[in-house]
Amino acid sequence: MPVEPREVALADITDFVDRSFRPLAEQKDLGFKTDVDVNLPTLIHTDPQRLQQILKNLLANAFKFTEKGSVSFKIGTASGGFSPDHPVLRTARPVVCMAVTDTGIGIEREKQQIVFEAFQQAQGGSSRKYGGTGLGLAISRELSRLLGGEIRLVSTPGQGSTFTLYLPLTYVHTRLARVEAASTELSRDERLQKERQAPWPRIDLPGASAAAVAETGPWTGEIGDDRTFIQPGDRVVLIIEDDPAFSRFLMDLAHDQGFKALIASRGANGLALAREMKPHAITLDISLPDVDGWRVLDRLKDDPVTRHIPVYMISVTDEPERSLQHGALGFLHKPADKDALTGVLSTVKSFVERQVKNLLVVEDDDVQRQSIVELIGNGDVQISAVASGQEALDALANQHFDCMVLDLLLPDVPGLEVIQRIKKQPTLRNLPIVVYTGKDLSRKEETALKRLSQTVIIKDVKSPERLLDETALFLHRNTANLPDAKREILERLHRSDTVLAGKRVLIVDDDIRNIFAMTAVLERHKMDVVAAESGMDALEQIEKTPPPDIVLMDIMLPEMDGYETTRRIREKPQFKGLPVIALTAKAMKGDREKCIEAGASDYIAKPVDTEQLLSLLRVWLYR
């Protein structure tokens, strides 16, 4: 969006607010007052149109969620309250704050960050009672950043909320907020040191394409990194992390390991840098300001250009199993000390420098074992193949492996027991395991395997292609280096929508807008879409002829929720194997396990990422 700043009188702002919302206050019988600090200058230099958009969103929300009491709007001078390391506000004099306070329903502390994310609302039923898409605050946050400011929230459930917009009195473009250019010639080392010590600003491009981000110039990170000094042959690590101090610390440790470092404080910038710069490895935080790290990881692993890059998750969110199942190299829980972080970078360095990766294949059938070796083997993968569970455990005790392919029907130790014994060993806990079996799994076995292994592939005529794809993911193979025939298999698997074309998908969601949005996407891929707006409707739809090939199940349904609806579907013997993908409003710890226990095949968090959804559909329909 373009920014068109000009002088705006503070009195005009309060007049706009009063004129726009006084009638609504009277209609709802709410108190409403506006106030301006008399010590402020009379003018602010900003974009009036963008400012009005922000204030209209904040005030509209305040009135929407306030049934009794009052709403107030105040303009004052901020002595604090905003981010101390904000690239613009930290040096602005003065900082103007515009606060919208209400006596409404309030927001629980753990939900206060959610409301700034697209399509999210603080309460699961808010959209049903109050209406709205959940876009207003997400848009307002991005507009505030566009104007060089930010929005902060203070709220108490049942008592009300205050949303405060912080802006510099005079608009400064974030790119111009960089540390001043040296007026004298500096040596390369002096310039690098100066850049590393300076707090660099964000350039916010949520949802931007790689090309769009690349066009913003070489400095898209929050801290001066090494990108202008990278030479051919350098080892490069991309650090996607929104904490500037932690980013700088990681960068210093990366230098100790011989890496050059790139830094991105936002997921969108990180994705763009990964495509543009093609780093050798990535460290990734989950709690990012624009998009969570899970979605960044999925996008990295869905993109053939970045799929092979090893990603190490470092986050306060403690979900190591989930990170490994999505293709991460490893997981480290914050807070982490220097030794632990050094260990991460040492592991990454060792993995990157080993050109040949080690794969263990455990299969008792001689013909199938040899076919797996021929399918996966190449110059970049060394395969050890064994025929029993005990041989597998002995091999793991004596050699390092990067991935294991395991059949469940073994002559001695059952495959599930082999996995359980592996996971009890700390040094093997992160070993990616691909279960490749012809065994007919019970629901209990399937649930257990999904918790312990990275993926489960049932052997059939098309399963070798999936096996090649999954092992390529967990071995971090660059498909560009594979022989033509194998590369063509993977390219066909990822690009071909013959997997989707003609398949019948049932969308279960009580919000017709979500149904329309997903229908538009899926019909472009020639899928036959049917919809249900409640759990009971869904149970009726699956009984119709033809039945669906797959179900997208919203969890937040009225009356009978998605968990119960999924359980009811699984009670019907003919739908035991029907793929059901759960759609959850927020990716919270434990959600995946709860969905799987209810009978879901997989799950995806809202707002739904289109590419991730299509990828999941391909996986579950490719049988």
Overview of this protein structure:
With 623 residues, the chain is of the alpha/beta class. The chain has four domains: 6-174, Heat Shock Protein 90 (2-Layer Sandwich), CATH 3.30.565; 217-351, Rossmann fold (3-Layer(aba) Sandwich); 357-495, Rossmann fold (3-Layer(aba) Sandwich), CATH 3.40.50.2300; 504-621, Response regulator (Rossmann fold), CATH 3.40.50.2300. It is built from 22 helices and 22 strands. The strands form five sheets. It has a five-stranded mixed beta sheet, covered by helices on one side. Strands 9-8-10-11-12 form a five-stranded parallel beta sheet, sandwiched between helices. The relative contact order is 0.06. The model is unreliable at 119-133 and 175-222 (pLDDT under 50).
